[in-house]
Amino acid sequence: MRFLLAILLVAALHAQPPAPAPSKPPVRVRPQAYPDRPPAPAEKVEQGKAVYGLNCTFCHGTDARGGSGGPNLIRNEVVLKDQDGELIAKVVREGREGMPKMNLSDAQVSDIAAFVHSFKVGGYDASRMTPETIVVGKADSGKTYFASTCAGCHSVTGDLKGIGGRITDPKALQQTWIMPGSGRGAGRAGCRRRR
Question: Who contacts 79 (Cβ-Cβ below 8 Å, separation ≥6)?
Answer without folding.
Answer: 73, 87, 88, 113, 116, 117
